Amino acid sequence: MKMLEAKNLKKSFGDNEVLKNISFDVNKGDVLAIIGPSGSGKSTLLRCITQLEKVDSGEIVICGETLVKNDYDGNALYASKKEKASVARHLGLVFQNFNLFPHFSVMRNITEAQRKVLGRSKEASEEVARKLLKKMGLSDKENAYPCELSGGQQQRVSIARALALSPDILLFDEPTSALDPELTGEILKVIRELASEKMTMIVVTHEMLFAKNVADRVIFMDKGYIIENGTPDEVFNKSTNERTKAFLAKY
């Protein structure tokens, strides 16, 4: 079952064309790793999927609901406000810089969106939060504030916050880029565990070993194009594309 379909996505910032005719899909339970050099369009692609940016043209369908399609002139035509909100509920996004509310406790960081977006009661929201904090190994941190946590702990809280909304697809935008190597391992372990539970995920990452060992499919992007889209074995071991081989040789 296709959870996400993207067709012919184009996005420019002024004269800078960032996404050039991007097409791919993600099946239920799969982990898609998106790799490539900085500036290749990876993060912009995630931002377009999660409605933080708008595409200029193309089609995005998430869990059977159309977020955007082309009008008769080939320009992006977005769904209604109500329909966009419905699509957004299928997605959870984990940022590279955590994006926790500094003046909220860990517990409130995880419960706030549950109550406002899903309409859960305080008690139900806290029950979900405690289960997720236990899963993240942070049961003793519910009353702590972000400034009292390590980077790895903050990122695990942000993952718990995203999971608390019960998304169908979890997206990660370079979730380890702000962490040192020791803390990076903490986050990759969490993502591996989610993968073993068949959580559908899209992970923009510079961790090549993770992409090779955990992903079901790998996309290599460069200068706004998808250069390769295949299994980890096809991309990492059998690629005949010179640009892909040059990029991977650095790792």
Q: What series of H and E elements makes up the topology?
A: EEEHEEEHEHHHEHEHEEHH
- Biggest sheet details: 6 strands, mixed
Q: Going across the major beta sheet, what is the strand order?
A: 7-8-9-3-10-11
Low-confidence sequence ranges: none
Number of strands: 11
Q: What would you report as the Rg, rounded to the nearest angstrom?
A: 18 Å
Q: Distance N terminus to C terminus?
A: 33 Å
Class from secondary-structure proportions: alpha/beta
Which word captures the global form? globular
What's the mean pLDDT score?
Answer: 94
Q: Which percent range describes the beta-strand content?
A: 25-35%
Provide key terms for this protein:
single chain, 251 residues, alpha/beta, 6-stranded mixed beta sheet, 9 helices, 11 strands
How is this structure best described in words?
The protein is of the alpha/beta class and 251 residues long. It is built from nine helices and eleven strands. It has a six-stranded mixed sheet, with helices on both faces. A five-stranded antiparallel sheet has the order 2-1-4-5-6. Helix 3 (106-118) crosses helix 4 (122-135). The longest helix is centred in the C-terminal third of the chain and has 16 residues, at 181-196. The chain is globular, with a radius of gyration of 18 Å.
